[in-house]
Amino acid sequence: MNWHDIFATRMSRMKASEIRELLKLLDQPDIISFAGGIPDPALFPVKAFQAALADALSPVNSSSALQYSVSEGYGPLRDWIVGQMATLGVPCSRDNVLITSGSQQALDYLGKLMLSPGDTALVNWPTYMGALGAFNAYEPNYDRLSPGGNRSAEDYAQTAAEHGGRVKFAYASVDFANPTGETLDLRQRENILDLADEMDIAVIEDSAYQSLRYDGEPIPPMLALEIARKGSIEECRTLYCGSFSKTLAPGLRVGWVCGAASVISQLVLMKQAADLHSSTINQMAINTVARALFEDHTAKLRQTYASRRDAMLAALQEHMPEGVNWTRPEGGMFIWVTLPKHMDGGALLRSSLETQRVAFVPGQAFFADRSGANTLRLSFSLADDAKIAEGMKRLGQAIRAAG
Ligand code: PMP
After folding, report:
1. Mutate to test the pocket of ligand 1, among 99, 123, 128 (most ligand atoms within 8 A of CB)
2. 0.90 surpassed by pTM
3. Which residues cross the membrane (predicted)?
4. Are both 101 and 221 inside the same structural domain?
5. To pair with 117 at 20 to 30 A between CA atoms, which of 40, 65, 164, 197?
């Protein structure tokens, strides 16, 4: 069977990354890994989920918990999200919220909704690798989003036309971004909205880490800033993607999109066609647990992750050689390291694994144009302070040996 002639052209863009394959080998116990950007399972609210699932499976609730449900998502959970969005400066109603299977599904649907082959998506350099993976299936061209506002709408439009399409949206991970840990300031958020208004394009605001701020003042989401400009969410071009993965549990796969009802209704059609709805029982469990302990639980997460971030920043300061720079995130799970120009993160990963038994993600895969060879992403979410100190010492040695 010649599968290559059978596969759709979109599959040519969907390649397993060599680095991901390498990172699969990381479960040997002597390796200290800062590669996985995932929550610490020791912090999952397991007891609360046990009680919530037992309740969902009780005689009164099981007939709905195990049944098909509506594509829009579980009503009480959408209501809880409406309340949460209001605290962020986003007044909205149930009709503005679609529950998705993780915010990853929201990225896939938004790509499917807007991108025809050859259209352009504006993304940061670097950006969330999973967003590139989701959009790639729709065969877009990427251009570099400049949150500093130093590229004109005409310039973007002309570059897009040269690639045979038009710019459809700007995508940005706004708070403590994956992979850099950086946060867009108010000016940068306003610049993106200005550009979007001028170009008549959508804005995808990825807010997966929003609840994990450890210090500094919260900055309103772009959706809130846009509502302040336009008066109502129905007039807005920003589509906010939220997630329970970093706050409650990623394995339940519950996230959401919040935006104008006219767009949400299109996404509902898409969800109906793709998977009917997200898991009913998982949405019910998330709803119960969020209502019981979201604030207290996220406060606990913030305390633990903040101390790991501080431990990593201190260890980087102590062990990194001259010429290595890194970000100082105010939240999230990641620190982004820039090596001297001549160094290569992929080669460093190989040598670090072999000689120091320490792992991270080389930065190149986060760049749509495959630049950034001299960068790498470290995650501080999984390791305790002692592992972080030892790991940074080993990484410093690996960098010295490679440099
Ligand atoms: N956006 C960003 C920036 C992420 O880092 C992730 C998870 N790594 C996601 C979206 C997707 O998360 P989920 O589908 O679990 O909500």
Report:
1. 128
2. yes
3. none
4. yes
5. 197
